[in-house]
Amino acid sequence: xxxxxxxxxxxxGAGKGTAAKQIAExxxxxxxxxxxxxxxxxxxxxxxxxQVKAIMERGELVPDELTVSLxxxxxxxxxxxxxxxxxxFPRTVNQAEALSEFQxxxxxxxxxxxxxxxxxxxxxxxxxxxxxxxxxxxxxPPKKEGIxxxxxxxxxxxxDDKIESIKKRLEVYKEQTAPLIDYYRGKNLLYDINTTIxxxxxxxxxxxxxxxxxxxxxxxx
Length: 221
Ligand code: AMP
Hints:
With about 220 residues, the chain is an alpha/beta fold.
């Protein structure tokens, strides 16, 4: 079986996380989200968590060196032997260069979503404190306001989903992460999805379907 080493690239709020979860489950490979790893560290108040908490709340990027060493360690775990989905990493050309020194990437899936739609989705996002399930106040509301349907946990708004942080994250994306589109296109690894679909119709299912089609084309299934 071919190793599925895949990167999901795209602005915050484009649905990478939700799609990554579904693909990971289907192909029995891990979803590796640097954002989730950092959030977990903040929650547990570890040394790493203390280092990154304020940076994340401001919507800025954690330094490359720290992020790369964390990913390197994670990718050395045995559960990555059939591949992995990187969600939210790399976020700078520096990180991508570092990654290329120890991993061979098969494809980079580029998510597209206009800025107004990103802001609408992120500012309405609510997350379960207990199980991490994701809701949206109008698109996908819980049955009972503020309470998770799955586990009864309390829903909250991520501090970086407040409007000021969203704007900062979009600015950081444009300046530091979007250059990766040309970087990977130049290496013939880039696959664009959701380019011809109305923003409101871009659901995780639609993204997943397109990703599966790319996998088939690449002989990864
Ligand atoms: P995400 O959940 O992917 O939106 O990430 C949340 C936050 O974690 C980002 O706004 C950054 O502060 C930090 N972060 C996640 N991934 C990276 C990365 N690859 N490089 C630097 N910072 C990151």
